[in-house]
Amino acid sequence: ISNIPINARWKRNGVTVAGGHGAGNATNQLYGPFGLFVDGDQMIVIADCFNHRIMEWKIGNTNGQVVAGGNQQGNRLDQLNGPTHVLIDKEMDCLIICDWVNGRVVRWSRLSGTTQGEILIDNIKCFGLFMNDQRNLYISDTNKNEVRRYKIGDKNGILVAGGNSKGAGLNQLNFPTYIFVDQQQSVYVSDRENHRVMKWNKGAKEGIIVAGGQGEGDALTQLHHPNGLFVDTLGTIYVTDSYNKRVMRCPKGTKQGIVIVGGNGYGEEANQFSCPVGLSFDRHGNLYVADCNNNRVQRFDIE
């Protein structure tokens, strides 16, 4: 989905669509889900971080399927170690994965019988990734505090955000996590340790603060460890405000957000989170959130 109505609201109670059976590595369980990717409205792919695997989950099913990793943590080609994000490359019918602890981006075919991946980019502390319509890969690096753009097969990439060492200046980032790229190739970054979302226009030498940036806190002008990120065609920002246990919507040009789900303290009720991380929408505008410490993915239906 790209355009969400400006006056859209979501049900405040979520429905568990993956996991929710405690922490564990059975196929009906998750253990620390981080990033997720919704494919149409039938399938979610989840970076099941502490199980060192990627799960594919058909909506409505109690059990998911391991589609990458799941062979304990390690750095062999059939293993992952702390994966933080995943996306589906439709054209190549494969998964592209941030294998964060291993410091590499790997690709796994979605063909049945696939038992190992291949390394696309090495020596990169990749946390978030995004592929645009031109099939450019944008990847955040939490060590170098930067985002680079890559063509598939390119190992070096082009710097598009940060890269000026760790810091809080407008040309700096401090632990960039999830990213989103719009049609104008502007790069939005959850600048986690700076508690802000930055927008870097194409070719810019510094970013613009578009959400947060008022120090860590729980006011509507503040964020506390932002992570999952989505921007619609109106420029409205949706971000998981992890330590505030809420999802914020920040209309373009405003410095104040609106809580759309969560914000009801720490817990495992249907209207609560215990550290939301990844975020995605299906084509109807329903919202999916990886509720990391509750080991579940929640769907909030658009009203």
Question: What does this protein look like?
Answer:
The chain is an all-beta fold and 303 residues long. The chain has two domains: 19-123, 6 Propeller (Neuraminidase), CATH 2.120.10; 128-263, TolB, C-terminal domain (Neuraminidase), CATH 2.120.10.30. The chain contains no helices and 24 strands. The chain has a four-stranded antiparallel sheet, with no helix packed on it. The protein is globular, with a radius of gyration of 18 Å. The mean pLDDT is 96.
CATH class of the largest domain equals Mainly Beta
Order of neighbouring strands in the sheet with most strands: 1-24-23-22
Largest sheet: 4 strands, antiparallel
| CA distance, first residue to last residue | 16 Å
Cα-based radius of gyration, to the nearest Å:
18 Å
Q: Give the helix level as a range of percent.
A: under 10%
Any idea how many domains?
2
> What low-confidence regions span 5 or more consecutive residues with pLDDT below 50?
none
Average per-residue pLDDT, rounded, comes to 96
Secondary-structure map:
Elements: E1 15-19, E2 33-39, E3 43-48, E4 53-58, E5 65-69, E6 83-89, E7 94-99, E8 104-109, E9 118-122, E10 126-131, E11 136-141, E12 146-151, E13 158-162, E14 176-181, E15 187-191, E16 196-200, E17 208-212, E18 226-231, E19 237-241, E20 246-250, E21 258-262, E22 276-281, E23 287-291, E24 296-300
Antiparallel strand pairs: 1-24, 2-3, 3-4, 4-5, 6-7, 7-8, 8-9, 10-11, 11-12, 12-13, 14-15, 15-16, 16-17, 18-19, 19-20, 20-21, 22-23, 23-24
